[in-house]
Amino acid sequence: MNRFVAIIVIFALISITSCKSDKTETHTKEHQPHWSYDGETSPEHWVEIEKNSDCDGNRQSPINIIDIDTKPTQQKDTLLKVLYTPKTALKQVTNNGHSIQFDFEAGDSIQYHGEIYHLSQLHFHEPSEHTINGIRYPLEIHLVHKSKSNAYTVMSVLAKEGAKSQLFEFFESFLPIKVNTTKEINQSSDLTTLFPKNKNFYTYGGSLTTPPCTENVNWIIFKEPIIVSVDEVLKLKNNMPKNNYRNEQPLNNREVSINTFQ
Question: For residue 28, is it within any domain?
Fold first, then answer.
């Protein structure tokens, strides 16, 4: 009987040791370095952290756009069509620890160079990631569109401080939101009111501005900023990491076009 008890005790000890080992492995995996905008995991270290990314590529974003170096083209040559309805359906809002992100139901899209890109989400960078003639704006909004071939077209709207924006008031009505939290929205809004009155824009080929920094992005950056209030900027800022932007990347002989309407 004592031998039987001893065997049970040995098996129990083996089992406990095994469980402790498993828990240690899980703990280690959960605490692997993850990219951020600060310290040892800031953009300068993304290449080290994200081993299989394009973050060290030659077509990276964002960039500094210098007006005198851009190539003038006509709007009709770029074939950009914004196919948004007056009631774009917002599905949910998430604080993913990097930005505030609004996700959309399927339906809205743009057509760029003959290909359809479907609107999936928009998020914010404060201050802006792209700069124009060295000027960094208080805020940049990215409207992310994806094609069936998994290519991206991102429309960027820069913002400066001034009067209140009705659309921003709507977005911020869902704040505050804690990190790693999602709120269901299931409401609609007219996103076309987000764009500046002057529709001239810059275009160039680049990458996602966050890991994995994939280099299959068409960038459309409206030249004229929109106006939002100081309070709106601060409210958004309080729900995001400080300075959640990536620094200017080398142009590496890429061409930037300025597209104007006739």
Answer: no
Determine the Cα angle at 256 with ends 253 and 262, to 5°: 155
Half-sphere exposure for 86 (CA within 13 Å, toward CB): 0
Based on the structure, what is the number of domains in the chain? 1
In a domain, 47, yes or no: no
The count of other CB atoms within 10 Å of the CB of residue 185 is 19
Q: Give residues with Cβ within 8 angstroms of 123, minimum separation 6.
A: 99, 100, 101, 102, 141, 142, 144
pLDDT digits (tens, 9 = 90+) for 212-238: 999 999 999 999 999 999 999 999 999
The DSSP output letter for 141 is E
In a domain, 231, yes or no: yes
CATH (domain of 235): 3.10.200.10
What residue numbers bound the domain in which 172 lies?
A: 52-260
Residue 197 resides in a domain: yes
**Assign residue 252 a region: left if phi > 0, alpha if psi is -120 to 50, beta otherwise?**
left
Q: What is the reported pTM?
A: 0.86
Q: Is the peptide bond before 127 cis (omega within 30 degrees of 0)?
A: yes
| pLDDT per position as a tens digit, 152-201 | 999 999 999 999 999 999 999 999 999 999 999 989 999 999 999 999 99
For residues 178 and 97, is the Cβ–Cβ distance under 8 A? no
> Residues with catalytic annotation?
98
